[in-house]
Amino acid sequence: MTLAPNPAERRARARSDLRMGVPVCLYRDGAAALVVAVECLSEGRFAALGAIDGAVLAITARRAETLKARAYDGDLARIELPKAATLRWAQSVADPADDLTTPMKGPFRTERGGDVTFHREAIALAKEARLLPAMLVCPLEDPERAAAQRLTCLDLATDAAPKDAAGYNEVVSARLPMVLARAGRLHVFRPDDGGEEHYAVEIGQPDRTEPVLARLHSACFTGDLLGSLKCDCGPQLRGALGAMGKDGAGILLYLNQEGRGIGLANKMRAYALQDLGFDTVEANHRLGFEDDERDFRIGAALLRELGFSSVRLMTNNPAKIAMMRAQGIAVTERVPLQVGKTDENAAYLATKAAKSGHLL
Ligand SMILES: Nc1nc2c(ncn2[C@@H]2O[C@H](COP(=O)(O)OP(=O)(O)OP(=O)(O)O)[C@@H](O)[C@H]2O)c(=O)[nH]1
Ligand SMILES: [Zn+2]
């Protein structure tokens, strides 16, 4: 057998490289490009890469809208680098932190026509790496040069973003008595694509042939652990565990998709924007993200691994129900989970109801 990394493993390496500010080489059909995440760029690498003829900043159409830059490529825009472009300029294109204090960043010239495969893939990699979706993309005449510098190289014919969700393997499970549910067991699942681990908390011994009381909870460090008043996550987590403890059976999936899938750093960037008056959805858009970047297929995959095919789902989010059903998990009942409303999170919950279809 070959010991070489497979496509998923190469992609995992690429994500790590991007988080360190190391460029990654993308190639396909004889063409190639070096891509690097703007937020992690050093002065030295920016000077070297920005000087390459044809280098552009790839940003999402969401971010372009805020910057008033024309997005000719549908979901993304390619901003040309002005002659005097500095790293500071590139970072202010990527990061909305100073949008209001220094609004005059443009006007921006954006490219039109031509192939955007590398740009789109670069944005996808940035999101997978939980980085701001703003990438410096530089055409590369000779991909051999990237290999010679030991850069990670992805052949998009084989290593493009996979359409199917990762496979999950249970690493271990052990008994975990909890205040709210004594008969607990924690299962740890590891994906086969080098991505995040996710957890399942099983309460009691639920019958696999009956619909199980289930909760799909997304990680919220601020709400779950710190008791933040900005959201309802902590009370929902404890409310779900409490209900399962009382029932004597249930399954709580704890998915490590912090900040609706944008990561904690970006969620805190969103919180900083919320302090300037933007709501939770607007803040995501200004950062360049969609409202919700989570992949709920993971929840269905874990349920299947655990032997469940039917749930009574504790949620107020119809998208979770639709996704479960689309993934072949029967949702026999929606169990509302309305706890933890405070003065501080009332506007947040109202925005979720108005813009994201949450049920009140
Ligand atoms: N980007 C972003 N994420 C947030 C914000 N507030 C909370 N979150 C995240 O939102 C997610 C909330 O997860 P859930 O409670 O599972 O999801 P939900 O869509 O509200 O659905 P239900 O609670 O099931 O009704 C967590 O990952 C939080 O970290 C915010 O203002 N911005
Ligand atoms: Zn929260």
TrEMBL record:
Catalytic activity as recorded in UniProt: GTP + 4 H2O = 2,5-diamino-6-hydroxy-4-(5-phosphoribosylamino)-pyrimidine + formate + 2 phosphate + 3 H(+)
Enzyme class comes to hydrolase
Q: Name one GO biological process term.
A: riboflavin biosynthetic process
Return the cofactor note field: Binds 1 zinc ion per subunit.
Q: Where, in this chain's numbering, is GTP bound?
A: 215-219, 236, 258-260, 280, 315, 320
**Listed GO CC annotations:** cytosol
- Which pathway or pathways does this protein act in? Cofactor biosynthesis; riboflavin biosynthesis; 5-amino-6-(D-ribitylamino)uracil from GTP: step 1/4
What are the names of the required cofactors? Zn(2+)
SUPFAM superfamilies, from UniProt?
A: RibA-like
Q: What is its EC number?
A: 3.5.4.25
User: What InterPro entries does this protein's entry cite?
Assistant: GTP_cyclohydro_II, RibA, RibA-like_sf
Q: What Gene3D superfamilies has UniProt attached to this entry?
A: GTP cyclohydrolase II (3.40.50.10990)
- Molecular function GO terms recorded: GTP binding; GTP cyclohydrolase II activity; zinc ion binding
Keyword Electron transport attached: no
Please report which protein family the annotation says this sequence is part of.
Belongs to the GTP cyclohydrolase II family.
Q: What does this protein do?
A: Catalyzes the conversion of GTP to 2,5-diamino-6-ribosylamino-4(3H)-pyrimidinone 5'-phosphate (DARP), formate and pyrophosphate.
Protein's name in the database: GTP cyclohydrolase-2
- Gene for this chain: ribA
